[in-house]
Write a structure and sequence with these properties.
It is found in: Cell membrane. By secondary structure, this protein is mainly α. Helix content is 67%, strand content 3%. Helix 3 packs antiparallel against helix 5 and helix 8 packs antiparallel against helix 9.
């Protein structure tokens, strides 16, 4: 039988649409160069290192995103439409951080949390991904309208932005619901452990999962990516034609947020897309190719998981308004002297009201 224990236990199946167990051969995905004997993975994986990484990401995400929520929530008078999107992005990352301890235990041992938690945590993981990229699309459109078309009306209708965020959360949840049907807990024939993964089904079910996966590639990543590239391409072109230092500073952190998102998520999505092409037999699958793709999927997923803790670090190092707002909150609670925020206050007074965070 086919053995991919490392991929099963590391939870690489983010989309929950394929089963990386022996049953994969029942779906007709046996590589052409291994008819005589099944493929085996020669890759050894350090599960202890993954547990350490997930633990650090959990701590950093919990602390950093909590500060982001605190700063934006306490800056009601200065909150812009971009801030509302960033607030929801921080909430999405916080929700994602809460699943990491479960996934760390899963990597180290087996799935011990039951069927309901398997489905719930898998759904949360997907909701974070979809809501994250959709919120970044809204931020890119918001900045595009504000800078390219000099439109500020959206900032005067912040209640509309809140409804947009509600629609994004609902849409992200709807895109994630199929995982409830396909994900379950069962004993892996190859490892003898309980896993939270995909149960191989009939050919019709497999075809349905292929369709859903392609839809998620397009709606969940590549189409939003095209929208962001267009908006930011136009925005950069406009900024290059103006000498406004305020606009350049306001856009710096937004560009950084999008760039980090692409660095963290693009490799994983490209790997998943390539895996989909192999599993649908668009690309001829061999044992060697399968082994390489599975190994890449493991590491690119770890990179994608790290995304949830990086945005607060960007705000702290790039966002001078964020640092000022945080210092002001600390001063109000008597944690630091108010003298420490005077220099920051002088900067903020000269940069306008583009965004509390940036």
């Amino acid at each position: 039988n086919m053995v991919y224990n490392s991929l099963i236990l590391s939870g690489t199946d983010l989309f929950g649409l394929f089963n990386y167990t022996d049953d994969a051969y029942n779906l007709g995905t046996l590589p052409t160069d291994s008819i005589a004997s099944p493929c085996t993975s020669s890759y050894t994986f350090n599960y202890d290192a993954v547990v350490v990484i997930y633990s650090l990401v959990f701590i950093l995400s919990l602390a950093g995103n909590s500060l982001v929520v605190l700063v934006i929530r306490c800056s009601k008078n200065l909150r812009s439409s971009t801030d509302i999107y960033l607030l929801n992005l921080a909430i999405a990352d916080l929700l994602f951080a809460f699943i990491l301890p479960f996934w760390a235990v899963y990597n180290k041992n087996q799935w011990i949390f039951g069927e309901f938690m398997c489905k719930a945590i898998s759904v949360l993981r997907e909701v974070n991904f979809y809501s994250g990229i959709l919120l970044l699309v809204c931020i890119s459109i918001d900045r595009y309208l504000a800078i390219v078309h000099a439109t500020q009306s959206i900032n005067h209708k912040r209640h509309l932005v809140k409804y947009v965020c509600i629609v994004i959360w609902i849409f992200a949840l709807l895109l994630s619901l199929p995982i409830i049907l396909f994900r379950s807990v069962f004993n892996s024939p190859s490892s003898g452990r309980l896993i939270c993964s995909e149960n191989a089904g009939a050919e019709a079910t497999s075809s349905l999962r292929n369709v859903i996966r392609f839809l998620r590639h397009t709606l969940g990543f590549f189409f939003p990516l095209v929208v962001m590239l267009f908006c930011y391409g136009s925005t950069i072109k406009t900024l290059l034609q103006t000498r406004s230092g305020q606009k350049h500073k306001a856009m710096k952190i937004i560009f950084a947020v999008v760039l980090v998102f692409l660095i963290c998520w693009l490799p994983y999505n490209v790997s998943i897309f390539f895996d989909t092409l192999m599993r649908t037999q668009v690309i001829n699958e061999t044992c060697s190719m399968r082994d390489h793709v599975d190994n890449v999927l493991i590491w690119t997923e770890i990179l994608s998981f790290m995304h949830c803790c990086i945005n607060p670090i960007l705000y702290a190092f790039i966002g001078q308004k964020f640092r000022h707002s945080l210092l002001k909150i600390m001063a109000n609670y008597g944690l630091i002297s108010k003298d420490k925020i005077r220099k920051s206050s002088s900067y903020v007074s000269t940069t306008g009201n583009t965004s509390t965070t940036v």
